[in-house]
Specification:
Strand content: 15-25%
Number of helices: 8
Structural class: alpha/beta
CATH architecture: 3-Layer(aba) Sandwich
Number of strands: 7
Shape: globular
Radius of gyration: 17 Å
Distance between the termini: 30 Å
CATH superfamily: NAD(P)-binding Rossmann-like Domain
Largest sheet: 7 strands, parallel
Number of domains: 1
Length: 253
């Protein structure tokens, strides 16, 4: 893609890189010549992805990390700095949700959602800004959701939508803070509709058939979102794409 050439050799961190949107994004950016940090909890999947990408000549660094632990997030960035001097691009992709009603959902599930979708995202931004400060260019992309713009009708996981509304507010505030400082760092987010990943299986804890759930209509592929992320990166450095809202043409709402 035109415009991606300037990111060759630059360091990108992708959280939630072992599956779904994160994996597709890590593959795309690594193949585009970026030095790619793979972050997720599943060590085996990270190592498999590392082997696949390195066999193609890509440069990757797998760092298994539990994003619900602040000390592991700090250690993640320390390891990146030791290996490659810090990040130029942060793709905050890791996220989770659980099916449940506001009246009955256990608070520990709320904490899990907030820990990953909001707090870990915020801490990763805080650390990434330290690395990007003083550079000619930096990019932060938070992977949000259409659910961060409106609560989907009949949603079965409303607390996920609540957390993604928080991501939108965080990204808005971050952009204004950076602009106020005259910083060249760009902050934006991408808000996909339904994407076929392992998200539904995890949200229902394996109690519902995910293939049936995603077969109701043609949904997005993870690679569709990865392509949109590349577009956000590839535009000229003076252009800030603050949010891309995307969905399948067949998604009704």
């Amino acid at each position: 893609m035109d415009g991606m050439e300037r990111w060759k050799g630059k360091v990108v961190l992708v959280t939630g890189a072992s599956v779904g949107i994160g994996k597709a994004t890590a593959e795309t950016l690594a193949r585009a010549g970026m030095k790619t940090v793979l972050c997720a909890r599943n060590v085996e999947r990270l190592l498999d992805l590392q082997a696949e990408l390195e066999s193609e000549g890509a440069t990757v660094l797998p760092v298994p990390t539990d994003l619900q632990k602040e000390e592991e997030i700090r250690a993640l960035f320390d390891e990146i700095r030791k290996a490659w001097g810090g990040v130029d691009v942060l793709i905050n992709n890791a996220g989770l949700g659980y099916v449940g009603t506001l009246a009955e959902q256990p608070p520990e599930e709320w904490r899990d959602i907030l820990d990953v979708n909001v707090l870990a995202l915020s801490l990763c931004v805080q650390e990434a800004l330290k690395d990007m400060e003083g550079k000619a260019e930096g990019q932060i992309i938070n992977v949000s959701s259409i659910a961060g713009h409106r609560v989907p009708p009949g949603t079965s996981n409303p607390y996920y939508a609540i957390s993604k509304h928080a991501v939108k507010a965080f990204t808005d505030a971050l952009r204004m803070e950076l602009v106020g400082k005259g910083s060249p760092i760009r902050a934006g987010m991408i808000s996909p509709g339904m994407v076929e990943t392992e998200f539904h299986e995890r949200a229902t804890k394996g109690t519902e058939d995910s293939k049936a759930f995603y077969s109701r209509f043609r949904v997005l592929d993870a690679s569709d979102v990865a392509s949109a992320i590349c577009y956000m990166l590839a535009v000229p450095s003076h252009v800030a794409i603050h949010d891309i809202v995307m969905r399948s043409v067949a998604q009704p709402h």
